[in-house]
Amino acid sequence: MKYFVKTIAASVMALSVPTLTADANEQSIREYTNKHQHHIMKDFRDLLSMPNVSSSVDDMMVNAAWITDYIHKRGFTSEIVTAGRAPYIIAEKKVSGADKTVLIYAHFDGQPVEPANWATAPFTPTLLTATIENGGQVVPWDQVEGDFNPEWRIAARSAGDDKAPVIALMHALDAMEQAGISPSVNIKLILDGEEEAGSPTLKQILADHRDKLEADLMLFCDGPMHQSRDRQLVFGVRGSMALDITTYGPLAPLHSGHYGNWAPNPTESLMKLLLSMKSEDGKITIDGYSDQVRPISNAEREALSNVPNVDTQMKHALALAESVGKDIRLEESVLSPGFIIRGFQAGGVGKQGRNIIQPSASASINMRLVADQTPEFLVEKVEDHVRAQGYTIVHEEPNADIRRNHAKLVKLDWRAGAYPAFRSRLDSPEAVKLISILDNMEGNKTILAPSLGGSLPIYLFEQALENMPIIILPVANHDNNQHGRNENLRIQNLWDAISVYAAILEQYGTD
Amino acid sequence: MKYFVKTIAASVMALSVPTLTADANEQSIREYTNKHQHHIMKDFRDLLSMPNVSSSVDDMMVNAAWITDYIHKRGFTSEIVTAGRAPYIIAEKKVSGADKTVLIYAHFDGQPVEPANWATAPFTPTLLTATIENGGQVVPWDQVEGDFNPEWRIAARSAGDDKAPVIALMHALDAMEQAGISPSVNIKLILDGEEEAGSPTLKQILADHRDKLEADLMLFCDGPMHQSRDRQLVFGVRGSMALDITTYGPLAPLHSGHYGNWAPNPTESLMKLLLSMKSEDGKITIDGYSDQVRPISNAEREALSNVPNVDTQMKHALALAESVGKDIRLEESVLSPGFIIRGFQAGGVGKQGRNIIQPSASASINMRLVADQTPEFLVEKVEDHVRAQGYTIVHEEPNADIRRNHAKLVKLDWRAGAYPAFRSRLDSPEAVKLISILDNMEGNKTILAPSLGGSLPIYLFEQALENMPIIILPVANHDNNQHGRNENLRIQNLWDAISVYAAILEQYGTD
Q1: Using the beta-carbon criterion (under 8 Å), do B111 and A453 form an inter-chain contact?
Q2: Which positions in chain B touch A260 (Cβ < 8 Å)?
Q3: Does the keyword Lyase apply (chains A, B) (predicted)?
Q4: Is the pLDDT of residue B81 over 70?
């Protein structure tokens, strides 16, 4: 019952904002959710129990079949479509009397897992009293009687990214039906089975099925919410691309005693090359790299200034003494291009340490693009920079002769799946309508973020579904460990998602 | 028979050097070796088949029992001794009429293995037509009729480092007995079962058993021979120590999109810290680091100038366009301290690449000490340097509060097993005698190297057995992939080792 104490307090403070009608309907949805906690949770556990790394098409088909059955029970028609890789689900639920249509995107695949790094099995959804980092303890499911503590977490791959929307949306419809509230819009779904692999066939899927996706507004239901936990709409994403860089030393591993000082060490040359790309204060120093960057607009600056500043709280939670840009807030920092060294592999450390000079050293870079930057342009700028450091570039593993003839030799492996950013207007009529629906719910004013730091393949929808306004509506807690070990969803976020979806479905089609 | 063509040609060119007596006896030993190739090889295979990572005392005891049995057959008395860790073997063979005693050191443990990286199983000795790097193919043992091709390799952990000496020495005694040649010296052995772990209990073993090791000369039979393949004596070794360095980022893995640009990346700070320790041309830039270094003596400079220059050949074989010091030869470069980054671990690359900012990044350094440098002094200099870069040093994993309070925080983990270098005189009477025995054998003049680049715990013998001349007599090929994957011994090196040991045992005790 702890939960209700909190929401009553919140509604007292927010008394003057919501209309009476909305309040009553919102309350009905909350009551449904509260009463059906165990039922909703069982559905979510069932979905999370299915392995969903998109490289296994078989696994993804099992997920797709489960979801198909799940949405058909709520009156959707659907088809599973593919374009040579993992499945997508395209679905529709017509609502009598509705003039408008909302298209909802979510994805049901997850990042690859390294089970050895997880505290609990990634495909055995587990109840935790808190995140593992904060000392979370396992609570056996069968020991929960009555309500779940809303601060507890469900730990599993895709708990936060991105299996919650389909569960929450279907329970929003169940809750509305039970409360006698009719949706005001037709609902279309496109559920992506390969987002974490960069949605390599999405372009083809959109070319093949564009006509089934026409709508008045597209909601992208993915990504984490703001760290303040207030409701949030997001108007853009960064693009993403990845580059693996390999430098070379001796052809075979060499004894670091007999040859140390004499044989070139590829780890040293790789470090020098990487650091030539970043300044001491973390800025990208590759010539021309930021030439295409779209400036921050006045509307975006204003929205940024209204976002609660959580830098101090975040630094405490993450045990960071300072952030990279010191004076630049997290929300503003993601409007700049990112150049993040995500991996470095060159021989072992600790018990794996051996006295060897490595034949090669490799690093992996994740580049985050902002609006108007193109992958092709950045490839050119990075390669220009590398050559300017005196390096000869190869794109395949070099043979011994090539290695002999080039003291500075580097392999650049541009990974598949590069895509640009997307950023839409904060002041379109569709955005204004959506913002007003959310602002009429109990709680704080909706946070408007010009861009997520993360990436979604929204540019493809922008290209395929011309002129359709696309707005991101995240529902997962910020500390969901998305992509990492011990991914989790905070239980309150699941309950809240049901209310938010219900409010939009009820009100978006009304005048 | 290929081999004899080569040695006959060599002896023609060297006609004026060897005495007639030495020639005849040397020839007898060669004939024994040639005739018993399959028998010698079977013994070597048996020894190499026994796993010998010294952390497994049980495995090392199996090796020790085999060796005990093997040397007892040649009239040695022996004991297996321990000081709380892996076994050592101390043995003696008295020779009637001998006044002098030669003490021989070798080790029978090996570096840990990563079988996945090996082309053949590390403890299944395998015959190869060449090194794996040079396209070596497996030859089934039962397909070898007649002589082994002397350029072929035996691939197994410890084939090159360091199980060959015990086999070669026992067959040298067998060959001498068969040829009616009596040793001129008593023989003592100390066989180390934990050298690759830094011989952590050797100091105690020497304290407990010093009286059993008195001798006139100590031969250290370990390490690779010169790249020219000429016979070689070595008068020193570098010391060794290892340091693991860890820098810190966020407490939990962070999504590189949502937090990239904002959250400090420990991989970047680690690279900056490491590169602050090395100049662009590979020199160590840690203040005071080289203050203790013993200068190169005139005798050492002269010896260096007589060593065949194999830099060009080595660079070709290793597919290197240039060496670090460009004008500084390999043999001279190892008379300087080494600071080699042997490992760097911070997230995955290639298929293991994930869009994560790592909570920490770690590197492992192998420091190679030269004569008169002490580990204690270098710890102080490195820590001074790290603090001068603005870092707070911890030696244990820091908690969240410590991480919160220090933007520049580093964990330094000084690994166990640090030891100093050793370098002895090139012009002692014992060295002069030994050099003359080797120079009287067929082949080129003996190469005299002031120091190996690698490390052996000789300083402990220097301290325990005061005034005993200690000289290193390596027998393994330089390209044995010591410590790495696909370690191997070139077959000719095994045959040559038998001749060299026999010559020394025959002649060292004579006037």
Answers
A1: no
A2: 334, 338, 340, 366, 368, 453
A3: no
A4: yes
Among A343, A353, A403, select the one facing B319 at the smallest CB separation. Answer: A403
Encoded tokens for A471: 């707005």
Please say whether the dihedral angle defined by the alpha carbons of residues A110, A111, A115 and A117, taken in this order, is positive or negative.
negative
- Rounded to whole angstroms, how far apart are CA atoms B263 and A183? 42
Q: Scanning the structure block, which residue is given the tokens 């020199």?
A: B283
- Taking an 8 Å cut-off on Cβ atoms, the answer to whether A261 and B403 are in contact is no
To which residue do tokens 């000079």 refer? A357
Cis check for the bond before B413: say yes or no (omega within 30 of 0): no
User: Which residues in B lie closer than 8 A to residue A341 (C-beta atoms)?
Assistant: 265, 267-268, 346
Of A271, A317, A355, the CB nearest to B342: A355
The pLDDT tens digits of the residues spanning B100-112 come to 999 999 999 999 9
Please answer whether residues A221 and A105 qualify as being in contact, where contact means their C-beta atoms are separated by less than 8 angstroms: yes
Neighbours of B399 (CB within 10 A): 11
Buried b (16+ CB within 10 A) or exposed e, A489-510: bbbbbbbbbbbbbbbbbbbbbe
Stretches where chain A sits below pLDDT 70 are 1-22
Q: What is the model's pLDDT at position A417?
A: 84
Answer whether B161's CB lies under 8 Å from B488's CB. no
- What pLDDT band is residue B97 in, cutting at 50, 70 and 90? very high
Which residues of B are less than 8 Å from A389 in CB distance?
none
What are chain B's domains?
A: 2-237+422-507 (3.40.630.10), 239-293+336-414 (3.30.70.360)
Residue with tokens 């990239």: B260
Distance separating alpha carbons of residues A54 and A31, to the nearest angstrom: 36
Contact residues on chain A for B247, CB-CB shorter than 8 A: none
One-letter amino acid at A354 equals: R
Rounded Cα distance between B346 and A105, Å, is: 34
What ranges in A36-163 are assigned the alpha helix state H?
37-48, 57-72
At B254, the amino acid letter reads: L
10 Å CB burial of residue A477 (0-12, 13-18, 19+) is buried
Edge-to-edge strand list for the sheet holding B77-81: B77-81, B88-93, B185-192, B100-107, B217-220, B470-472, B232-234, B447-449
Closest CB to A262 among B249, B330, B350? B330
**How far apart are alpha carbons B218 and B103 in whole angstroms?**
5
Q: In this structure, what token pair is assigned to residue B313? A: 């050949």
